[in-house]
Write a structure and sequence with these properties.
Layout lengths: L23 H5 L16 H5 L3 E4 L4 H12 L9 E8 L3 H21 L6 E7 L2 H10 L16 E6 L4 H5 L9 E9 L3 E3 L16 E3 L8 E4 L3 H4 E10 L17 H8 L5 H15 L5 H12 L1 H21 L2
Parallel strand pairs: 6-7
Antiparallel strand pairs: 1-2, 2-9, 3-4, 3-5, 4-8, 5-9, 7-8
Length: 327
């Protein structure tokens, strides 16, 4: 198993091979399977026991590292995040053991394909409690997939382990006021850039294995619907409380221009096809189908940062002149 370059590499899953042995790299990355005392708000027992999850407690090494990594990357929202509970998928039963071994086989195959680096990462995935229950029990199936905006094609969108905020914003509060995230291990292989509005559902060619929204600093990993049960391994389930409006997040306020004004200004520079796409996703944003950040990503990718800076600065100059003339 290839070494995973992130904060969780020293407590990965362990296999139950027929000879009860693990590789040297696996031994370096095995987390203790001890069942520790229960902390935080309690789920009903069927959700825990019937799905083979064990509760980790504060003081468990895995709990402490995941908690620190999670909260330290939430920014201002961390102070408002309460009642964190972490459960570990112990991969019990023949079905989960088979999925685990399948994930390892695909990892080794990807290593060969990519010259030794399968590009395995940890990533966050927002899902409801019922969706997680189905995934843990049956794997990823089409009817029970976590919902997403569909902005980047057909598959599951995950956020890098260092950027949980986007996934937190996509969580849905349940009747108990709880939100849920899965911390998954993901085989990315060679990634390709996916443009907003894509209808892609599989790699564009044999050269690629997964998608990203930005090649240099991705906010989204896109695992295609053809690869869900072989390239994603849910290892930990987080539940927590956060403000219902998530207003603890800082949003840039300067320089500022309203979306309608920006869209109007861009019509001078962009072709109708690009403007139609921007207008569509602006409507989706107003209807709360996509986040503000996703809309901004669409506009940046279609217009380019240089044009946006010029339009925003021009608008700002006009506002300043208008304020001076009104004095």
């Amino acid at each position: 198993m290839a070494y995973v370059e992130n904060q969780y590499n020293h407590f990965s899953f362990q296999t139950q091979d027929s000879d009860n042995s693990t590789s040297a790299n696996d031994e370096e990355s095995v987390v203790s399977d001890r069942q520790s005392s229960i902390s935080g708000p309690s789920f009903d027992q069927p959700f825990l026991e019937n799905n083979g999850l064990i509760r980790l407690s504060r003081g468990d090494r895995a709990f402490d590292v995941i908690e620190k990594r999670f909260l330290s990357n939430l920014g201002p929202l961390a102070a408002h995040t309460k009642d964190l509970t972490i459960q570990k998928n112990c991969f019990s039963g023949l079905t989960w053991q088979a999925r685990l071994q399948s994930f390892q086989i695909f990892t080794k195959a990807m290593e060969k394909k990519c010259g030794g680096d399968a590009n395995v990462k940890y990533a966050w995935c927002a899902a409801t409690r019922d969706e997680i229950s189905r995934i843990v029990e049956h794997g990823f199936c089409y009817s029970g997939l976590p919902k997403n905006s569909g902005l980047y094609g057909h598959g599951i969108y995950l956020s890098p382990d260092c950027s949980p905020t986007e996934s937190v914003k996509n969580t849905i509060v349940d009747s108990n006021g709880m939100r849920y995230l899965m911390l998954c291990r993901v085989i990315l292989g060679k990634t390709e850039l996916v443009q907003p509005g894509s209808t892609q559902c599989h790699p564009s060619s044999d050269e690629f294995d997964s998608g990203v929204d930005d090649l240099s600093t991705p906010n989204k990993y896109i695992v295609w619907s053809t690869h869900l049960n072989t390239h994603i391994l849910p290892e930990y389930i987080l539940s927590f409380r956060a403000p219902s409006s998530l207003k603890g997040l800082k949003m840039p306020t300067s320089p500022w221009i309203s979306f309608p004004a920006l869209i109007s200004a861009l019509t001078t520079f962009l072709p109708p096809t690009a403007m139609n796409l921007i207008s569509k996703y602006y409507r989706d944003h107003r209807d709360k189908k996509i986040s503000r950040r996703e809309l901004i990503q669409v506009i940046r990718q279609l217009a380019g940062d240089k044009l946006l800076i010029a339009v925003i600065n021009s608008s700002r100059t006009k506002q300043c002149r208008a304020q001076v003339s009104n004095r």
